[in-house]
Amino acid sequence: MSKIIVTAVGVSGSGKSNAYGAIMELLKVRRRDSYYLTACGATPEERIRNSGIINRYADINQGFVSTGTMITTEFPFAFGGHFRPDVPTYPLLDMPLIDYPGGVLKTMLGEGSEESSRLLHRIMDTDVLLLFADANILSEEGGVEPARQKIALEINTIFEILSTERDTAFVSKPRTVLLLLTKCDSGLIPQELKDNHFHGLVNRALQVFDPTVRFCINQPGWKIAVVPTSTCGDGNSNSWRDGNGIYHSEMTAPPQPYGFDLAILYGVMNELENRVRLGYDDSEEIPGEIERKPGFVSGFQWRHILQRLSGQENEQIELYRQYVGNLHSILDPLRGSQIVEV
Amino acid sequence: MKPEIFLFSRTPEADYHYLIPLPPQQSNAVGAFLQQRLADMQRGQADGTVYFFLSDTDAVLVRAVDSGCRDLYARPILSLEGLYCPMEDVRPFWLCLPHLVPGFWSASSIYTLLVKDGKTIPLPPARLMDACAQYSPKNRHAKAMERAIFAADTPVSFTFDADGLHFSEQPPTQGRTRWQPQEPRRCDIRLTLDRKTKAAWLEAVSRGSIPYSIARSADLAREADGWSFSALENAAAALEAGLDKYGWQYAPDKGGNP
Ligand SMILES: Nc1nc2c(ncn2[C@@H]2O[C@H](COP(=O)(O)OP(=O)(O)O)[C@@H](O)[C@H]2O)c(=O)[nH]1
Ligand SMILES: [Mg+2]
What we know:
heterodimer, A: alpha/beta, Rossmann fold, 5-stranded mixed beta sheet, 3-stranded antiparallel beta sheet, 12 helices, 44% helix, B: alpha+beta, 7-stranded antiparallel beta sheet, 28% helix, elongated, binds guanosine-5'-diphosphate, binds magnesium ion
């Protein structure tokens, strides 16, 4: 099956693990507008096993997930939508999601490790990048600069390095970056940052992630948008900061998460649109016999060329086109309020 | 003996990683075993159960516990902590375990000893072992553990929890899997005569290059014309009879242990 790579990046405590719980609730359980996540796998046995793996992880219905992330966990997901009777009920794309300890980012800039280099390569391969920005930190009194030090230093550095790489593979493929404002339910966010669909908070986030944001805006074909999110939903939490500067959050009512599903759908929509526009579908492996000269064309262009040649792409591309059309009809009305394109 | 302390945990700021890593020569089996412990800890299992895991070339003693500290988001900080032991020290390490494990099980996390202000500070392993040795005798399973460990002919993997010691029926990934109760191990009985204190005692010691003490008689006082032979003989018989329960046997004609 074709695959879409979605990668979540954020410092420790920015809300990644809870986001996975929310994503499951929104897309696996509630299935927004018929779009869904399910376990992937080549056989029913594998899918059932994977389903078990997924269900054992973050369940936000018990309150916030408060075990820190110790080991990297992969969610073997597949993504699909059954928005019309004539589209297949089975999933369209494999969408493996990965939760890793946020400290890996720090390691990347420090001593480095096997894990941190795996994450870096995944970022370089990603179709959709989810950047996590904690609304509580963005709301702190100090404003932009301290918040940048706390939550954006690593990712800004990574982008600075990748954008000046000699190998242009990273920048030449169109990608979608989503800046997720997490914990938007928090009572610690001042009203002036909240007003008008979090206009003030969105601006602050853009400043905090400035080098990264500017880079994305300047890349042809890249998209960047900001999405306010919450795991528990507005009014369902109690958040405070104690005398030692420690943040506490309690869920006070059953969770009504929002935002995360829109981010995923928006990312999928853009990626499929790219694939339609470029006539490219990544389901076919590059045939082994044909040798590819390194440095001549990127892997991405190469697959594209091969598929054009083989003329196989049409059916899948046609399906992509239908998804794109339907996703636009769902997401376009939300632009400017729940999805802020930059 | 040189076991080394290791610690997988986090500081309030930095997310989970090996704050004090294991030495690079750790075996793959030990690496895989610890990865399994981390997976359990991720699922919230941090009840302090002590694991002794033995591979063909090294061993670890490890447990997962709540450190009692919290991170910047008030999340409990868990700690996977323990001692790594290279091959050459496994045997003496094994013989220390009765003094170490029950205390290690009862003591609170060593996280607060090892991490201050977000930085790790060195702690000599001997300090940890001494601290545990003080707690150990208070554990009601300590005696039974001592017997079982000394009776086991070769080191084997086990767990230790509120119910005491459990030899691993099926230890995970590639460890030394089987614990086979052996025929009693053979030892010597030595007589020591101390002319200064005028005391004598008998001691059962293991055979081998580094004999260690298994059991010892009470002191026998010197009589006017020396020590009474029958008193010594009686004491030796009593000592010998007691050896059984430790899994040892006095067999002077049979040579060393396998
Ligand atoms: N109010 C509020 N708090 C949240 C939300 N998501 C996470 N938190 C808090 O932030 C902490 C860290 O979240 P977590 O998902 O573990 O962050 P990670 O380290 O990036 O995986 C949690 O323990 C919660 O206290 C949210 O949507 N709303
Ligand atoms: Mg996490």
